[in-house]
Amino acid sequence: MGIPKKLKNMNAHVDGEGYLGKIAEFEEPNLALATEDWRGGGMIGPVKIDLGLEGMEAKLKMGGHEASLIRKFGTTRVDGVRVRLTGAYQADDGTAAQAVECYIGARFSEISPGTAKPGDDTEHDYTLPLAYYRREVNGRTEVEIDMVNGVFKVDGFDRYAEIMAIISS
């Protein structure tokens, strides 16, 4: 029987600026294949045909007002905001902590300052539709997706390389 690794602490960097003590939450993007049903003659039921990837979205929640993040709103580049989230995951079984890092290239599509009331919490939410995503565990790249450049790597295997080779020549 094992003990799960839990997030013990984290930090976020946005365009190189650290937010230690200010980052409240980070929501990693869901990874999903874009599929459609196909049922051809002779098949007894449909199968899901892989059509690429669904769009990805991440979210940041800051503990309060961050003018430096609001100033990034409206960038014209799909990857104009670079975010690096570093998390330390550890199981309470005496094993070493794991470094989990997420690198994203995106832009803020929505900034939600929520409600403001003196004496109450004032968290701000930032939504980022991703153009680029890479997730590393202890320095090893587990997933890398570059929507614009056609990169879709999982565990070191580029699942889209064959298609890119055909259309790039």
Summarize the structure in words.
The protein is mainly beta and about 170 residues long. It has a single domain, classed as Hcp1-like (Pnp Oxidase, Chain A). Helix content is about 5%, strand content about 50%. It has two helices and 13 strands, in the order ββββββαβββββββα. The protein has helices spanning about 65-70, 160-169, and strands at about 5-15, 15-20, 25, 35-40, 45-55, 55-60, 80-90, 100-105, 110, 125-135, 140-145, 150-155, 155-160. The strands form two sheets. Strands 1, 2, 3, 6, 7, 8, 9, 10, 11, 12 and 13 form an eleven-stranded antiparallel beta sheet that branches. A two-stranded antiparallel sheet has the order 4-5. A hairpin with a 4-residue loop joins β11 (about 140-145) and β12 (about 150-155).
Secondary structure elements and pairings:
Layout: E1 6-14, E2 17-18, E3 23-27, E4 33-38, E5 47-53, E6 56-62, H1 67-70, E7 81-90, E8 98-106, E9 110-112, E10 124-137, E11 140-146, E12 151-154, E13 157-158, H2 161-168
Antiparallel strand pairs: 1-2, 1-7, 3-6, 4-5, 6-10, 7-8, 8-10, 9-10, 10-11, 11-12, 12-13
Secondary-structure element order, N to C: EEEEEEHEEEEEEEH
- Count of distinct structural domains: 1
- Architecture in CATH? Roll
- The overall average pLDDT, rounded, is 96
Give me the number of helical elements.
2
What CATH first level would be assigned?
Mainly Beta
The name CATH uses for the topology is Pnp Oxidase, Chain A
Please state the CA-atom Rg, rounded to the nearest Å: 19 Å
Overall spatial form: globular
Which regions contain 5 or more consecutive residues with pLDDT less than 50?
none
CATH homologous superfamily identity: Hcp1-like
Classify the helix fraction into a percent range.
under 10%
Number of beta strands = 13
Distance between the termini: 51 Å
The share of residues in extended strands comes to: over 45%
Main beta sheet, described?
11 strands, antiparallel
Helix/strand/pairing category: mainly beta
